[in-house]
Please model this.
Amino acid sequence: MINIAVMGYGTVGSGVVEVINTNGARINQRIGEELNVKYVLDLRDFPGDPVQEKIVHDFETIIQDEDVKIVVEVMGGIEPAYTFVKRSLKAGKSVATSNKALVAKHGAELLSIAKEKNINFLFEASVGGGIPIIRPLNSSLTADEIEEITGILNGTTNYMLTKMFYEGADYDTVLKEAQANGYAERNPEADVEGYDACRKIAILSSLISGQQVDFEDIYCEGITEITVEDMKYAKAMGTTIKLLASSKRHGNHLHAIVAPCMLYPEHPLYNVNGVFNSIFVHGNVLGDAMFYGSGAGKLPTASAVVADVVDAAKHLNRNIMTMWDQEKLRLEDKSDAKRRFFIRMKGDADKLLVDLQYSFGEIELVHADGLEGEFGFVTPVMMEGDYDTRAKSYKDQILHMIRIED
Ligand code: HSE
Model:
């Protein structure tokens, strides 16, 4: 029998217990031994719930029990999760977590402790919910130099942008709807400002580079400025707008960014709609691959956590992870990345055209039906630093800039 402890009986924690109860026989078959949830750590009691007999309120019960071989951390946040996970690993217990904030900040250190102890620190559920992406990067795509990972990594914002695009709804209305449907939190900042996607792309960037990528170093722009008017231009151009989290290799550097981008229908992520997530990967020998599915929610996330538990159980005394040093990677400066830019501008296109061509080069004008006193245009490919310099002279006229992902 392999005993585990689940720390946190919230949405994901209760999902983990449910998955083990529902699929226990199959899971045991896959491990080759019986998996037993010995403890569930939570501050609360759950009278009437069968889990109550396993509830403990003190982490010391778990850490001091040598029979507990695997600890599941689904509490979220940095503390006390970090302290509990570190102590568990140091005590020789493997850890599976869904906690992206913890992994993004302390992943490299926790992995090195697991390696030293010949156990495992696994975090499949921290990126893309139920979609396998961490394990493919670590086990399947190991022959490649990964040159690009671009993902729709946040279900809440993808749901909102999909509604805005297909229904013409405005930002505030779709946010309220997303909150009513339980997709967006009452405080939606982490999702709509792009912070959640930023931590996820920081984890993926660390994994593909093998070095520490700090999320604070990644330029991060959310969807709060996206308007009904932006969507009208997107439609007029035959594009859609998605919140992309992207990491691309340029020589020895990675360029990482989180920002809303315009995508043409040829782009593999164009058709990823609603709460779904998807991750596009390009390897230098593989070429392209796509991962798509349920990126959030109780059971999809719990499915990934329990799969990590199965992996940890199959490798109790063997470290199977991974290339991620604590040495920090210097990211390419945002201003050096090249792309096209869509700009919405106040005024009359005919009057400004010559001036804009002088400033930006061969621009393409875009007109959207029903919008008075403004127009749009697309720049040629240029470095973002050059765009910033040129756009300075028009700062009072520019209504919005959205990057184009060709
Ligand atoms: N709030 C996140 C999302 C949950 O909407 O995708 C999964 O990390």
About this structure: The domain at 138-294 is CATH 3.30.360.10 (Dihydrodipicolinate Reductase; domain 2). The radius of gyration is 23 Å.
